[in-house]
Amino acid sequence: MAEYTMVAALNAALRDAMAKDSRTLVFGEDVGELGGVYRVTEGLQREFGWERVFNTPIAEAGIAGICVGLSLAGWRPVAEMQFDGFSYPALDQIVSHIAKYRNRTRGRTSMPIVIRIPSFGGIRGKEHHGESPETYYAHTAGLKVVVPSGALDAYRLLSLAIADPDPVIFLEPKSRYWAKEQGELAVDGPRMGRAWVRREGEACTLVTYGAMVTRCLEAAVVLARERVSCRVLDLRSLVPLDLDTLAESVRKTGRVVVVHEAPRTLGMGAEIAARIMEEAFDYLEAPVLRVTGYDVPYPPAALEQRYLPSVERITAAVRRVVSY
Amino acid sequence: MPERIFPLPDLGEGLEEATVNAWLVKEGDQVSLNQPIVEVETAKATVEIPSPFAGTIARLHAPAGETVRVGAPLVTFDVEDDDAAVEEEAGPATVPATPAVRHRARELGVELAGIAGSGPDGRITHEDVERATRSDPSKAEEVQTLEERPEERAGARALWTVMMPTDADVRPISMIRRTIAENLTRVVREVPQVTTFRTLDSTELEAFRREAGLSPLPIVVRALADVCRDHRSLNASYMAEQGEIWLHRRVHVGIATDTERGLLVPVVRDVGDRTLGDIAAEIERLAAAARDGSIRIEEMTGGTITVTNTGSYGSEFGTPIINRAQAAILGLGAIAPRALVVDSQVVARPACTLSLTFDHRLLDGATAGRAFGDLIATLSSRDRLEALPR
Question: In this complex, is the C-beta atom of A282 within 8 Å of any C-beta atom belonging to chain B?
Fold first, then answer.
């Protein structure tokens, strides 16, 4: 059976999409000859030529703006922001134009854009290299926001995102880039917008996404030794949220702990907890708890693991709701 | 003076109601803290309830003979303590319960306000709600036949019950039956238990017991206690949640006792310190109390091992189910003449089959087998039987 890193899987998804549809373009800072800081675009320029795979200036607003123009001209742009913390200059183009174009034109013009952003912490990076920007995008109507947690699903989700007629913010968990997964690359499987139960359990549901899926699975193994069986729900898609699977999980386990790297205040956990109250209040056996980053700027490398949800913090939260 | 209402407290053992046998106080009486005020009878025992306050009895809420459910008002006191009363009045306007519990209570038509929560921080649990439904007199003791229920005929039943005859008489499961069922189901589900059998040539036992004027049961109980002392894992509890094995120092033997209300298991305490005559008298006393309902809950708890006399209704042997948190149960079959081989000759001898069911987590087959062998050795040796304290 083949084995893929997430980088290799993303690279394969880009290559397959470009081969399948000659309108697909890849661009961003250093994506050409270098193949991107993380080598996700490695070899693409050589294979598809500099006209379809090209470097841009260090001007993120420009990268997003180019996406708008190219879309209007019929191309399918797949842009890369070099890092989460560098993507904010592009927010105006994304929020004011990319997200609004379909509505502005009363549905006549869609923006089939994918903006890939290497995101989240856990890589002992510098400032601007460990941010969790998902809420900014999730809060903007008109964007889809997806986060893969492993190599095989990264291939699937990126392929689906590129094929999607609307703009997709594609957040890649950097700390999982080099993690390997065995299997075959395939688009078949859960569609975009569907959550995925990664582990079955009855006592509590851990709702999470990205790199925290792995950490929640580790926590579930620890808890299983204490005979607390946890369901681990990999959201995959933050917009749209898979409310059906979320509500089903609450009905099944009655207890939920949301885990994400982003700061607590107005993070995805807040939205998920609120949705659970709206959709499945009567099934709650305990308050929904959140295990998240703290409400501080992302810390330097030495403190990073104290900031990120740890197995200990996750298991403590689960024990609290289970014994509530 | 402020009033304080004292509801019938949770009497343990999953009991949901009690009948007032006799009031030990009357309205207007002064009572002190912990003074017994009422004797109530439950499905399992008779209990005296001590006063929770010092004060004056203002009102008795149930006359003798009336059944009161747990949580319903029993006595109203006039108390001196102002602060306590203020605290009571300033209590929360709403009772703590999770959304899931509230939802279930709505489905069942149960009023949460009247329920004392048994969960953390006084939270009302699912069990509290279920208990409240079961003890609601408006829902109890209806006897119907299935034909009186149109929804049953309309196919609302589970598939496997569809083939069942529909002319059955239906009655609710009684409290004691439910308790027995829950305990047994739990043990069968949780404990890997196995039963092993030995035939006892009862010649010596019969001769000894006739001379001593005893039934075999107290002798077996006493011999078992001695075996427990030598084989401590037989008198132990496998505490899975704590990750521990508790080896009990004293041997408290439960005696499975058939009563009109169902199976009860009164406990003979400290069997190792008692003489045969004493054990016989205690078994007699407990069995009588169990049958007439005067037995107290504390006389039916704390057993460390159990003996069941399957022979009392003629069975040759049983495969008894161990009691919760115990390592073993010994079944005593009927003693009757059997063909045994003695010195290569087939001879008729009084004999019986003993069955030992044990918790296989605690005891390996060989360990249990050795303990069982020691018991048989004692019961078949006149010298050893004579050595038991009379």
Answer: yes
The burial class, CB within 10 Å (0-12 / 13-18 / 19+), for B322 is: buried
State the first-to-last Cα distance of chain A, in angstroms, to the nearest integer: 44
Q: Taken in order B296, B298, B301, B302, is the CA torsion positive or negative? A: negative
Query: What's the ipTM?
Result: 0.72
Can you tell me the distance from the alpha carbon of A297 to that of A303, in angstroms, rounded to the nearest whole number?
Answer: 12
Which chain B residue lies closest to A252 (C-alpha atoms)? B100
- Global model pTM greater than 0.90: no
Is residue B360 annotated as a catalytic residue, yes or no?
yes
Here the tokens at position A100 are 């609004």
Phi and psi angles of residue A54, each rounded to the nearest 5 degrees, phi first: -140, 155
Contact (CB<8Å) A284/B99: yes
CA atoms within 13 A on the CB side of A111: 32
Collapsed DSSP state (helix, strand, coil) of residue A77: strand
Over residues B244-287, the pLDDT tens digits come to: 999 999 999 999 998 887 888 999 999 999 999 999 999 999 99
Q: Which two tokens stand for residue B237?
A: 């509890």
Residues B103-132: b if buried by 16+ CB within 10 A, e if exposed: bbbeeeebebeebebebeeebbbbebbebb
DSSP state, B372?
H
Selection from A215, A188, A44, A211 nearest residue A134 by Cα: A211
| Locus of tokens 């169990």 | B290
